[in-house]
Amino acid sequence: MQDSSGNTLNVKKMPLVVENIIDKNFELMDENNKKAATVLKNQGIDNAVEFMFKHPKTGKPMDYATMRYYYG
Question: What's the whole-model pTM score?
Answer without folding.
Answer: 0.76
